[in-house]
Design brief:
ten-stranded mixed β-sheet, 10 strands, globular
């Protein structure tokens, strides 16, 4: 995944705010139209048919809640098109897996995706998630509720920022999109808004979650922990378990219970430090999961549906609801990291529960 090096002038301006959600804002960068076009071309997007706008990017620090419902602060980015009309639709764009807490949208990472929407006229917000950006501690990876609340509260803070500090407002139309972990997060936001009856505040027009592990406990786990193949992105496993241990507190008492040495010490150090890149994780976990996980743990949760690992995964399945707005679940049939069955099962389950406009779309049968 490419990321964007911004922060050329690192912080152009800083303002401290007093909104209910908004804590502070910092201008990251002002993209001229030709710079937006350059960045999109660098992502292999064709821009010849786009009527692009210049874009201002800001870092937002805001109030939200942690995984236990306690107050905390988090951060994210807002990208605002500079265009003649002062009201625009809003896109909440959720980024994919990042192992380092520094590699967050508010620090200039992943903004190329945001420029696609902002350059084409959408106010775009990108949450860092908990445990990333300014929020300290372990990242609760694939925890559906905290992904949802972190993103929803960013939208609230962004609206305060728009009203108090700019000449622009969102027009009340909300679109959701995200890839990989961002797909799971986008589906989480949509579900959370509907289940908590927040539709008046958040008028979701449509959502497009992409390549997400929506059926974590079955479609994803079933192939990740298959003995028939080696899962090629092994670092995702301890990263996920560390997040679930943070939230539920019952997966293990000590890293040695779950992992063999010397992996246990390395995993604990990487998790608690939170600044190591995926490549660093790969260097210490270039084996299959059976090489670094305790055999007894693997056998226990593979044979016991009520093992704490399986219970945690089921709590973060997000297919047991019927969206009331259109949902396009995008995937590629040859994905060997987040398996296509997640999307297929999600469509089937949601339709069975009464969803009228949910469609799983295979964009490329040969795509990984």
């Amino acid at each position: 995944m490419k990321f964007l090096f911004v922060l050329l002038p690192v912080l152009l301006s800083v303002s401290v705010c007093s909104g209910k959600y908004l804590v502070s804002s910092e201008k990251i960068y002002h993209y001229k139209t030709e710079e937006v076009e350059y960045e999109l071309n660098d992502w292999d997007w064709r821009t010849d048919s786009m009527n692009l706008n210049p874009v201002q990017a800001f870092k937002i620090v805001y109030n939200t809640i942690d995984v236990f419902g306690e107050p905390t602060i988090a951060s994210g980015a807002i990208l605002i098109p500079n265009k003649a009309c002062n009201t625009m639709p809003l896109v909440a764009l959720q980024h994919g897996t990042s192992f380092s807490s520094r590699n967050a949208p508010s620090n200039g990472y992943e903004l190329g995706e945001g420029l696609f929407f902002a350059g084409n006229g959408y106010i775009t917000v990108m949450a860092d998630y908990l445990g990333m950006g300014v929020n300290e501690g372990i990242h609760p990876y694939h925890h559906w509720q905290s992904q949802a609340t972190a993103c929803i509260d960013l939208i609230r803070a962004a609206r305060e920022f728009l009203k108090d500090s700019t000449n622009f407002l969102d027009n009340g139309q909300l679109f959701l999109a995200g890839y990989s972990q961002g797909g799971h997060a986008s589906m989480s936001i949509h579900k959370y808004i509907q289940e908590n009856k927040l539709e008046t505040e958040f008028n979701i027009v449509a959502s497009a979650p992409m390549a997400g592990a929506y059926d974590m406990s079955d479609s994803q786990f079933g192939q990740v922990f298959s003995d028939q193949q080696a899962y090629i992105t092994a670092p995702y496993i301890p990263f996920l378990f560390a997040g679930y241990q943070l939230v539920y507190g019952n997966l293990y008492n000590d890293y040695n219970e779950f992992y063999k040495q010397p992996f246990a010490d390395s995993i604990q150090h990487y998790v608690t430090t939170g600044t190591y890149e995926y490549e660093d994780w790969s260097n210490i976990l270039n084996e299959t999961y059976r090489d670094f996980m305790q055999d007894s743990v693997i056998d226990n949760f593979k044979n016991n549906p009520n093992h704490s690992v399986n219970v945690a995964a089921r709590k973060n399945d997000i297919i047991d609801w019927a969206p009331q707005q259109p949902v396009k679940i995008l995937y590629c049939a040859s994905d060997i990291v987040v398996f296509p069955q997640n999307s297929i099962v999600a469509e089937k389950k949601m339709k069975a529960l009464g969803a009228k406009d949910v469609e799983a779309i295979d964009l490329n049968p040969e795509g990984d």
